[in-house]
Amino acid sequence: MADADCTYCPTLQARLAGVAGGLRALAALIERELTEETTMSRRELLDVAAVRVSNLADQAQGGY
Question: pTM value?
Fold first, then answer.
């Protein structure tokens, strides 16, 4: 393993791509809720965002 390329890790890259996609989806949800007729209260939106961010952190750490 001493010759392994430490600058590229497919597993880490896949995790980060998943997290990036999740963050983009969360940003789109927040944008829609703030600019269009809302389907949830601001409090509900914060709750949803908190759960999604927590799940994304778990995903980044390999929890998913």
Answer: 0.77
